[in-house]
């Protein structure tokens, strides 16, 4: 046994010696046992390399002192936006709302024409870009919404023109009448916004951007602010100030807190600074989330309508960033409640940051609280919804302005359905117009009175034959 082992060692040494390597390179005949020993030596070398790669020191013992850092997963506003739980109904509503805004932008351009509320189809294709319609051509837009747009041939120029249907225009007029009748409510809205500001002043530009969301008329500066000079004072052309008064406001969320305290028999400690929470379907609650949410609900903060002379001092000294962010949540919550549809554009909300003292990243703050707000990213703009105000894609407590705008949206969503009803309505309207003309032409004696300009009719008829 010993002699055989020694012989094998000698054979391995021979295979690894300089003479053995020389014979291998020269191609001289080698014994099979020698080849087997060389193969065994190669396998041992490969095993050593594999063991070194799986050891505690993969780079060798000399690299053991080098620190290896493992990259943690990023937790930013962008990652939270991408990984958030989606609400399909609110996303669909945001997409429809964006289309309605595009149609209203086109209406503002067409209604501003001096010759009449119509425009040629060729000109509409150029105007559509100014209204933000960059995904559809003018023809596709007109064919997609036949209950909103009406195509006709110009009686003189004989080119294709379009206007808005009478039903859509009636809804727009109804909305304007409702906004004008809400003067007292609009005064209270502007007073509340000014009461939430740091120094009682707000830039009118920020209110103008949110005019439609707040339900203000187009000329709100003259019809509301300057008209009620006993309440508001124009400090500058673009700055309005609230005149000091004895009336103090309370946030709308206080009513919910009182109901929770009375009906559910919760303690004041649980409800005094709490907000209504409703998570979307499919929201995953990780370990420790409920405890953090309970502590945040109990956290005290400076409420929106409390005096704001020492907001920064109190926030910085009494609780730090969490109390400051909770105050910002309370202000945004109150702003959304003041809107008619309980939603607004995030970019327009950012214009109030300096005046209301919410110097935080608004989008990141909204994403931190998915039970209070929902951020929809359909289209170019991001729209924030107040979750407690919606059930599915409808408001829980509807109002007159929301009802008129909802009818406009439903008129758009009809698409190409029920178009035969449109044809019947047009035929009835033309027949009624023809009857009115006949009654006007024939007087009691059966004679046809001549009117100024009748001599032009046969000339135009011969010209267009």
UniProtKB/TrEMBL annotation:
Pfam family for this entry, one: PORR
Region (Disordered) residue spans: 424-453
Domain PORR positions: 87-416
Matches recorded under InterPro entries: PORR_domain, PORR_fam
Protein name in the entry: Protein ROOT PRIMORDIUM DEFECTIVE 1
Native source organism of the sequence: Salvia divinorum (Maria pastora)
């Amino acid at each position: 046994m010993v002699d055989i082992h020694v012989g094998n060692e000698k054979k391995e040494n021979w295979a690894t010696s300089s003479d053995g390597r020389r014979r291998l390179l020269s191609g001289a005949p080698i014994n099979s046992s020698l080849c087997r020993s060389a193969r065994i030596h190669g396998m041992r070398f490969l095993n050593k390399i594999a063991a070194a790669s799986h050891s505690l020191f993969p780079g060798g013992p000399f690299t053991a002192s080098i620190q290896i850092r493992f990259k943690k997963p990023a937790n930013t506003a962008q990652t939270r936006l991408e990984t958030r739980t989606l609400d399909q109904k609110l996303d669909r509503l945001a997409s429809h709302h964006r289309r309605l805004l595009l149609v209203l932008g086109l209406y503002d351009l067409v209604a501003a024409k001096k010759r009449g509320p119509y425009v040629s189809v060729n000109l509409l294709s150029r105007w559509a870009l100014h209204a933000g319609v960059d995904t559809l051509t003018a023809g596709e837009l007109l064919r997609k919404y036949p209950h909103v747009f009406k195509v006709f041939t110009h009686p003189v120029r004989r080119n294709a023109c379009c206007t808005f249907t009478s039903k859509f225009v009636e809804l727009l007029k109804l909305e304007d009448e409702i906004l004008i009748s809400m003067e007292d409510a609009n005064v209270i809205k502007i007073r509340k916004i000014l009461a939430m500001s740091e120094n009682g002043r707000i830039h009118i530009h920020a209110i103008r951007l949110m005019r439609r969301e707040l339900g203000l008329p187009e000329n709100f500066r003259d019809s509301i602010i300057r008209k009620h000079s006993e309440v508001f004072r124009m400090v500058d052309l673009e700055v309005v100030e609230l005149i000091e008064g004895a009336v103090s406001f309370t946030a709308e969320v206080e009513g919910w807190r009182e109901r929770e305290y009375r009906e559910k028999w919760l303690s004041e400690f649980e409800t005094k600074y709490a907000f209504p929470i409703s998570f979307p379907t499919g929201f995953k609650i990780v370990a420790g989330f409920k405890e953090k949410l309970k502590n945040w609900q109990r956290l005290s903060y400076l409420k929106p309508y409390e005096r704001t002379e020492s907001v920064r001092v109190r926030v910085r000294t009494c609780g730090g960033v969490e109390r400051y962010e909770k105050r910002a949540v309370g202000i945004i919550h109150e702003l959304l409640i003041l809107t008619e549809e309980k939603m607004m554009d995030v970019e327009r909300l950012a214009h109030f940051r300096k005046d209301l003292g919410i110097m935080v990243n608004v989008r990141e703050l909204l994403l931190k609280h998915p039970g209070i707000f929902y951020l929809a990213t359909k289209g170019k703009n991001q729209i924030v919804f107040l979750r407690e105000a919606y059930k599915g894609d409808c408001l829980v407590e509807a109002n007159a302005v929301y009802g008129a705008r909802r009818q406009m949206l439903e008129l758009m969503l009809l698409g190409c359905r029920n178009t035969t009803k449109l044809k019947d309505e047009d035929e009835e309207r033309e027949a009624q117009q023809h009857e009115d003309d006949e009654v006007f032409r024939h007087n009691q004696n059966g004679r046809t009175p001549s009117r100024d300009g009748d001599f032009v009719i046969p000339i135009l008829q011969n010209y267009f034959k």
